[in-house]
Amino acid sequence: MKKLPVFPTRVPFSSMLLWCLTVAFMMLGGLAQAQDEGEPAEKDTRPVRNTFESVWLIDNQTVMVPIKGTFEMDIQHRFGTMNNGYDDFWGLYAPSNIRIAFNYVPIDKLSIGFGFTKERKTWDFNAKYALFQQGREGGWPVSVTYFVNAAIDTRAKETFPENTYEGTDRYSYFHQLMIARKFSKNFSLQASVNVSHFNFQELVPGETENELLQMNNDHLSLSFLGRYKISSGTAIIAGYDLPLTDHEVNNPEANLSFGIEVTSSAHAFQIFLGNYKNIVPQLNNVFNRNSDFLIGFNVTRLWNF
Hints:
With 305 residues, this protein is mainly beta. Helix content is 7%, strand content 45%. The protein has one domain: Beta Barrel (Porin).
């Protein structure tokens, strides 16, 4: 099967900064609103509804935090890559990656939870807090949310080189600051800056004899998400993660994905194509070497108590 093109992973910093500023100004455009002379009309500053329909958009968090008392269950499934064609039925029968997770909203704007992922037998513990929420007619022009997780690789010690992955070597962390705007009832955009940290990175052989190289412990990236509703319960969704850190070895590929989302008041189902298999965000951002696409889906179920 013909390989799909590799996506670019590096752009000049000045160009990226200019582009990010342009996006930020677009999102903040609603802040300046002309007012008629005389008494200003009272504006509805309540939070805008449903910037996104789910806490997830493919493999990225969104700015959304469910209402207080919500219990959430997530099932995230990634099939194998499609490059073997009919041999494994375009990845559907290839080895897959799965994450099952649970979250709860104990107070307004705060969600906490945990999950377990098949890849690397990873347990992750996370929290998300909605710092600011876009107003309907006034108030904040954008929504701003912070997400953080801590993950633990629990594979057997024999899996790793001798005297490695002991104690805190197995720990990794992910920080994400998201800014999003609902431009209309059908169209929403989100941008975020992400920091991944691994307590330990393995040494790998370089190009010359006896040369050993190592990835950075910290990795910086940007993420961009979009959703466009085509009916009351169906939307087209897309995401792109751009790596910024230049490692001395094994630079990751950019992450690209697009698909369809179907939602109801308590469910969200997303099916999509993407070029990355990991689900825990720091693994996706740092270790994606894949330029072939695979099929994935997310199922989210909410209960309110």
